[in-house]
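Running this now, will post back.
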Amino acid sequence: MPVGTQGTVKAVPQETLEALGAEIILGNTYHLYLRPGHELIRSLGGLHRFIAWPRAMLTDSGGFQVFSLSKLRKISDEGVRFRSHLDGSSHMFTPEHSMEVQIALGADICMAFDECTEYPADEARARESLRYTMAWAERSLKHFRANAHRVPWGGPDGEMEGQTQSLFGQTQSLFGIVQGGMHGHLRRESAERLVAMDFDGYAIGGLSVGEPRELTREVIAEVLPLLPADKPRYVMGVGFPDEIVEYARMGVDMMDCVIPTRAARHGLLFTSEGRMNIKNRQFAEDQNPPDAACDCPTCRRYSRAYLRHLMQTGEPLGGTLNSIHNLAFYLRTMARLREDLERDTPA
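Update: finished.
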C-alpha cells in the first residue's frame, strides 16, 4: 500500500496511482487531524472525496506518530497527551478520539489506537506498553462498533466517478494491532487477546523501529499462526522489495511503507537489476531507461541521464518520476507475487 501521509502520496497524482494499479492507499490520522482537521474533511465529504481518491483507504490510529514524539508526549491510562510538532499546541488522543477522527475521515479500514514500543525495550517496559495497547484496543472496538458507518464515498448518495467497491462492502472496518516489543510471549498474549475480541482484521505493529531484519522475521513468524487465516493479516511499516516477497510467502496479506517514495526523492531506484543510485556520475550520459524490463511511464519515456540531471538540479520532477517508477516496481512485484501464490509456484 502506497503511503499518503497528508492526503497525498508525495509528488504522485491520484490518477497516476490508479493507472499504476494501486488499489488502496494510506492516510495519516495524526497529520490529518492537525491539518486541515478531521471535521473540515468530514464537512467536505470525507477523505476519499477531499483528495479525489475513488478506491480504498486505510488510516493509521496515530499511535506511531505519537510514539515518534517521545519528547513531546505523556502517556496515561486515559490516552496520550502530546504537543503538536507544528505549533506546540497541546492535544489529547484517547482510543475514542482516534476512532472519532478515523470515522470522520471515512476510511474503509481504521486501526485501533495503540502504543508502539521502541527498540530496544526490556520486558518490563514492553509489558507496560502492552497493558496500554490491550486496554485501548477494547475501548477502540467498543467505540467503533457504536459509531462506525458506511464509508461516505460508497453509497448511492456518495458516488464518485470511477469508484470501486470498498474492500469490505461499504462499511468501515477496524483492525487490532499486535504489540509486545520483541518479546515472543508478550506478542503471543497480545495476538490471542485481540483475536478473542474479534476484530475485522489484524496488524502486527511495532516493527521497523530499528531492530535487525532477522528479529523482524522472527516476530512475524511467531505471530502469524495465531491470527485467523480467513481475515486480513497486515504487517505495518515494511519493507524493501525482497522483504515484502518474503513476508507475503509467510502468509502476510497487507504491507505498507514509505520506502519507495522516500528513496525515490533521494535518487534511489529499485530495478530488475537491483538498486540504482541515479545521482551517480556514471549515468550522466546514459540514454538507457532506468529499467529496461519496466514499462512504467518513467521508463517508457525518460533516460537515466535525464533523471540524473533532474536530481542534480533539484527539480521536483525528478522526485515525481523516480517515485512513479518505484511505486510501479513495488506494485508489479506484488502483482506477480499474487499470480505465483495462486499457482503455488516460486516467485
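The chain has two domains: 14-257, 263-339. More later if anyone needs it.
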